[in-house]
Amino acid sequence: MKKILIVFSMLLLSVEAKQIKDIQFDGLVHISPEIAKEIIGINPGETLNEGKVDESIKKLYAQKYFEDIWVDENNGVLRYHVKEKPIISRVNLTGYSQDKTEEVLQGANVHKGDIFDESKAKNIKKNITRKLESEGYFDSVVEVEDTTLNPGSVQTNITVSKGEQVTIKKVNLFGAKHFDYDDIKSVVANKEAQFAGWFFGRSDGKLKADQLKIDAERIKEFYLEHGFLDAKVSPPYLRTDFSNYTAELTYKIEEGDFYKIGDVEIDVDTDIADAKKLKEDFKLKTGKIFDVKKLRRDISNIRKAVSDKGYAFANVIPDVKQDRANHLVSITYRVKPNDKVTVNNITIAGNARTKDSVIRRELYLSEGENFSQSDLSDSLSALKRTGYFNDVQIQPRQVSPDTMDVLVKVDEASTGSIMGGISYGSYDGFGVNAGVSDRNFLGSGIELGTNIDYSEKTLKGSINFSNPRLFDSLYSLSGNIYRKDYDYINYKEKSIGGMLSLGRKIGRHFHVAMGYQYVDSELTDVDESLQNNVYYQEGRYTKSSFMPSISYDNTDDYYVPRHGMSIGLSTEYAGAGGDTKFLSNTLSAKYYYGMEDIIDYDLIFRIKARASIIDDKGTLPLNEKLYMGGIGTVRGFKYADLSPKDASGNLLGAKKMATGSAEISIPLVESMNLRAVAFYDYGTTGEDDWSQIHRSSVGIGMEWPKSPLGVPLQIFFARPLDEKVGDRLNKVEFNLGRKF
Fold first, then answer.
1. How many CB atoms lie under 10 A from the CB of residue 62?
2. Which residues pair with 523 in a beta bridge?
3. Are 641 and 728 in contact (CB under 8 A)?
4. For 370, which of 310, 322, 533, 715 could close a Cys bridge (C-beta 3.0–4.6 Å)?
5. How far apart are CA 324 and CA 706, in angstroms?
6. What SS3 class is residue 174?
């Protein structure tokens, strides 16, 4: 570190009074001469005064920009020579994981453009050491050095050598009678070390010092959730043995009495809300154990019901009365509505790429209209369902007693993907595939994609587009064109086709559409063993079909829905021209239920079901029939293998099929948004009988909603429960692009 030196040099100052003709500066970089003149407080025309010059040097130095300052005078020209402290142009941090670099530098208060000096270096060391101790690392070493890049700028090199991390060997709850450590360990961040603590689901016991005080509040919250209204939890006492870096953590607890619920009432104006209806939805019930979490949920539900009437800033005050003799607590929710609130301005932030109009069209809050909490919640879900954003926040901000502004903050997701690969199959041989897609092309909300797949036996290509809100209206338009050439073992098939669909949004959750599809296909080189089979006839045929559909979707996220359901009913009528004639109907449903609000853990239940039936009206091609097996139907079996076959084992497909699955999804690596899933699949299918073939399977898997590939990634390990002789199994399955 350079030693700072101030030189006061008044050369050639005459004994006689001399007038200052001009003031000049030499060496200024980061402040202008005009600003420097204002700081020194000396102006041309004044009489030169050594004491005043000395004071001006001190004023300049007080700005903390300078390492060295000296002054000389020549023929009435007063010249200030300055050497400025260097500016930080680069920052290099080593010793921390790369994904924490920005967080650490922010906490250390070091940024590009800061002045670098000895005090800056000391502060950096102090701040990083404090952060390390908050993470449980003690006796760490932080070194800060500068490397000159060019005159006036340096690179700041920060080297961190993490010290030893303290391990918690024991957590004591002194005074606790009803609960022990095993009861509260799920709610605290600082836990006892367990054997094989490095394994998933186990605790390594590493101290998180910044969470200690918060853990005391968490323990108190635990007691309040179990009926102990008078519970008191002391600040934590940590006794550390620095000879082996282990610690014992102690909390002093006064549990108090255990309470149940007495009467629960609500005091609200009948013009604002129906008290009887609100009471039906209360989580706190007479005779049940008091739970502060349920109390807050009741308050939230009341506030939402009142805000739906326009009273956005309503106060809901729980009047809690304790009957200490009988250990009962009675609660009256008193509602003070305040004024009705109108939405003033809606501001969009965070959308560097997505157009404002794409975001605004999903909002049910409108400027100039009354605020509604339901409108806010529905707007939030609608924006998350688009899949354009990693996160969305809608923040109301009070402007006056009866007006509010609304800030919509979005964190844009990467919606584009480029995929390519090389494959090899025992039949197909070597193959290549490539695809480009973007669900939010140029921020317009339009989805575009193209894909090509080539091997020795296959050539497939497609182009697709979808505009869910045509010209920002309620109408949608989508379509695709494709070409497929496939050399099967017993025949060859070529087809080219396209589809166009026009739809309309109805209300907030319904969507109806009418599509038209045209396909031109040709079968050639059919094996002699199949020539008498009605489904394998050589020749060319066309399909012309209309496809009406209706769907309902109120889920709360595109990638990982935690609440809501999606239901769809679609029909395809082939026979409006063309050679094929059939009627196909499909009903699908998905239901999602997240448990985090109940158990404070991000566990999600999913139930999915699908049923299809085809009515042959005269000509039903093989590729239009139903096939069971693989992802989307029953995992653990080869794709399409669970379908009716002829005597030679050739697939004939089915006309009826129903499948369903139950899944549980939990966080696996939260920092990567990686999740684990367990599932049960069941399916039944047949030509004319629903249960001609039925199979089931169980398994586990991993799902990555926002994988580096730009699309959801799933890997499943499945175990069939009732396989039959001849079934082809597929115990490991991969999937790209399918929503969960």
1. 10
2. 493, 539
3. yes
4. 310
5. 53
6. strand
Buried/exposed code over 634-647 (b: 16+ C-beta within 10 A; e: otherwise) = bbbbeebbbbbeee
Say if 538 falls within a structural domain: yes
Report how far residue 76's alpha carbon sits from residue 20's, in angstroms, rounded to the nearest whole number. Answer: 5
Distance (Å, rounded) from C-alpha 614 to C-alpha 585? Answer: 6
pLDDT value of position 457: 77
Q: Domain containing 190: what range? A: 166-254
For residue 394, give Cα distances in angstroms to 141, 375, 382, 397, 553: 43, 11, 12, 10, 21
pTM of the model: 0.68
CATH number at residue 331: 3.10.20.310
Distance (Å, rounded) from C-alpha 583 to C-alpha 737?
Answer: 29
One-letter amino acid at 379 equals S
Average pLDDT over residues 395-415: 92
Rounded CA-CA distance 550/705 in Å is: 26
Long-range pairs, 40-49, Cβ under 8 A, ≥24: 40/80, 42/78, 44/20, 45/19, 45/20, 46/19, 46/20, 47/17, 47/18, 47/19, 47/20, 48/13, 48/17, 48/18, 48/19, 48/20, 48/73, 48/76, 48/78
Residues in Cβ contact with 198 at an 8 Å cutoff, skipping those fewer than 6 apart: 204
Q: How far apart are CA 522 and CA 487, in angstroms?
A: 12
Identify whether 469 is part of a domain: no
Q: Token digits for 44? A: 């041309």
**Cβ pair 225, 293 in contact under 8 A:** yes
- Angstrom distance (rounded) from CA 120 to CA 109: 9
For residues 690 and 693, give the distance between their C-alpha atoms in angstroms, rounded to a whole number.
8
At 38-73, the pLDDT tens digits run 888 888 888 888 888 888 888 888 887 888 888 888
Classified as helix, coil or strand, 105 is helix
Q: Is 210 exposed, middle or buried (0-12, 13-18, 19+ CB in 10 A)?
A: middle
Residues with Cβ within 8 Å of 166's Cβ and at least 6 positions away in sequence, in order, are 136, 138, 206, 207, 240, 245, 246, 247
Both tokens assigned to 180: 């022990």
Closest CA to 622 of 640, 648, 598, 597: 640
pLDDT in the model for residue 424: 60
Residues 607, 544 share a domain: yes
Maximum pairwise Cα distance, the chain: 125
137-167: per-residue pLDDT in tens? 887 888 888 888 877 788 888 888 888 888 9
pLDDT of residue 82: 86
Final residue in a domain of this structure, among 134, 161, 188? 161
Amino acid identity, position 299: I
Q: 498-533 burial, b for 16+ CB within 10 Å, e for fewer?
A: bbebebebeeebebebebebbbbbebeebeeebeeb
Specify the pLDDT at position 5: 39
620 within some domain: yes
Neighbours of 373 (CB within 10 A): 19
Strand-pair category, 328-336 with 260-267: parallel
The DSSP H or E segment spanning 182 is: helix 181-184
Residue 555 has pLDDT above 90, yes or no: yes
- Cβ burial of 195 (10 Å; 0-12, 13-18, 19+) is exposed
Tell how strand 604-619 and strand 636-637 pair up.
unpaired
Tell me which of 224, 254, 284 is where a domain ends: 254
Query: Which H helix or E strand runs over 245?
Result: none
Same domain membership, residue 592 and residue 636: yes
- What does the block give as tokens for 369? 């209209």
DSSP structural state of residue 118: H
In a domain, 706, yes or no: yes
Which structure tokens are listed for 284? Answer: 């706190």
Which residue has 């497939």 as its token pair?
460
Rounded CA Rg of the chain: 36
